[in-house]
Specification:
single chain, mainly alpha, 2 domains, 72% helix, elongated
């Protein structure tokens, strides 16, 4: 007796099963490729959103620096505002150390007190 595939060993069922598995594998790989493509597109969108956010933050920092040059603020007031705004969220009673460091840096930089090269003169 011969099988549909021309062989004499009755292997038609095994061949059909292998073809079925390969077809399913091909379908799964296409699905994975489509999902990865969509994930890549979403990641690209997120990167553009983050770049847009960073652009706005840098613009706000520039405006704030210009304002602080004309109207310096007390570092103690900056620390108090950071504490008020971030203590609960950060779990630190003194507020977020990262926010405090950035805020202090902005206030010092606007006053001409940046690390190397700053002369400390708010009118400079």
């Amino acid at each position: 007796m011969t099988s549909d595939n021309g062989g004499e060993h009755g292997g038609g069922t095994a061949d059909e099963a292998l073809i079925g598995h390969m077809t399913a594998l091909e379908s799964n790989l296409k699905t994975i490729a489509d999902d990865l493509r969509a994930l890549g597109e979403q990641a690209g969108g997120r990167v553009r959103e983050i770049e847009n956010l960073a652009t706005h933050v840098l613009a706000i920092e520039a405006v704030l620096a210009a304002l602080l040059k004309r109207h310096p603020v007390d570092p103690g007031d900056v620390d108090a505002e950071v504490r008020r705004a971030t203590a609960e969220l950060s779990g630190d009673p003194d507020g977020s150390p990262q926010v405090r460091a950035v805020a202090r840096g902005l206030a010092r930089g606007a006053a001409g007190q940046e690390g190397d090269g700053g002369d400390g003169d708010p009118g400079a």
